[in-house]
């Protein structure tokens, strides 16, 4: 089922509202198929493009989505398994600076994105309904395992919108 507003902290509404599917597994599957179509069509001359000084390149943007999915999936696994500690936040800009994304090929980045998403799908297939409803804490607030899966999909959708609006026009 879709997460309710009380299943996640307010900041994630931006992402979760972008997901149209009613279940986390449907969202994860659909998001992978739709995003790969868009990403495989990126012109070769755009991969190292940044739309303004100080902004990420397309490669950095996509590696950021991969990093974020890994962090969210780890949080989901930890909370499903009963983790009671507040899990740390992460500095997306520091991660991007250290990702070395621009030295990678587009094919390698797309392969990693697909592999990470398939791993997330496998993780979520293993969660019972009870596990999906478990919650945990991060510095921004409380979130359910289910809502984290929706946030994974919405976060990628958000960045695909940015990609289309600011990088590919």
- Got a strand count? 2
Work out the count of structural domains. Answer: 1
The CATH level-2 architecture is identified as: Up-down Bundle
What does the largest sheet look like? 2 strands, antiparallel
Secondary-structure class:
mainly alpha
- Helix and strand pattern: HHHHHHEEH
Low-pLDDT sequence parts: none
The N- to C-terminal Cα distance equals 36 Å
- General form: globular
Oligomer: single chain
Q: Write the CATH homologous superfamily.
A: dinb family like domain
**Strand fraction band?**
under 5%
Helix percentage range: 55-70%
Please give the order of strands in the largest beta sheet: 1-2
The average pLDDT is 97
CATH fold-level topology: Four Helix Bundle (Hemerythrin (Met), subunit A)
Individual helix count: 7
Q: What would you report as the Rg, rounded to the nearest angstrom?
A: 16 Å
Give the CATH level 1 class.
Mainly Alpha
């Amino acid at each position: 089922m879709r997460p309710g507003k009380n299943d996640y902290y307010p900041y994630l509404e931006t992402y979760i509202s972008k997901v149209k599917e009613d279940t986390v597994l449907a969202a994860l599957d659909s998001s992978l198929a739709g995003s790969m179509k868009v990403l495989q069509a990126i012109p070769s001359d755009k991969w190292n493009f940044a739309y303004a000084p100080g902004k990420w390149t397309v490669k950095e943007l996509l590696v950021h989505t991969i990093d974020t999915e890994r962090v969210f999936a780890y949080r989901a696994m930890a909370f499903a398994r009963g983790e009671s500690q507040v899990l740390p936040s992460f500095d997306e800009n520091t991660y991007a600076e250290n990702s070395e994304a621009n030295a990678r090929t587009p094919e390698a980045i797309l392969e990693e994105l697909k592999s990470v998403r398939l791993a997330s799908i496998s993780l979520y297939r293993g969660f019972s309904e009870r596990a999906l409803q478990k919650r945990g804490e991060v510095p921004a607030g409380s979130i359910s395992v289910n809502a984290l899966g929706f946030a994974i999909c919405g976060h990628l959708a958000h960045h695909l919108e940015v990609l289309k609006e600011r990088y590919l026009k």
